[in-house]
Write the structure tokens for this entry.
Amino acid sequence: MKYTTDEALKEITKRGAEIKRKHDQKITGILSAASLLCVIAIIMTASFFSGSQVSGEQTVYGSFVLSAETGGYVLVAVLGFALGVVVTCIIRHFKTKAK
């Protein structure tokens, strides 16, 4: 017999840890790529919906930033938040599944 029982269990544990590490690296790579694509999509959406004209009128309330073009920024903020929630849920799912 080449291995004792203790040595065999250590080898199995070592191989299992290596497989888990490779799986975690794969998931991390996929999530990193997805996050990068999401950032690019958010930047493109912000540039598409944002207006290039800035209103120079100032009011007493300082709401000169609130022009007709700010709807795009609000949309991008809401989409970014929703995307962050989805990515966080995916990450938590994989972390609890890995335990």
About this structure: The chain is about 75% helix and 0% strand. The first helix runs from residue 5 to 49. The CA atoms of residues 42 and 79 lie 8 Å apart. The chain has one domain: 5-98.
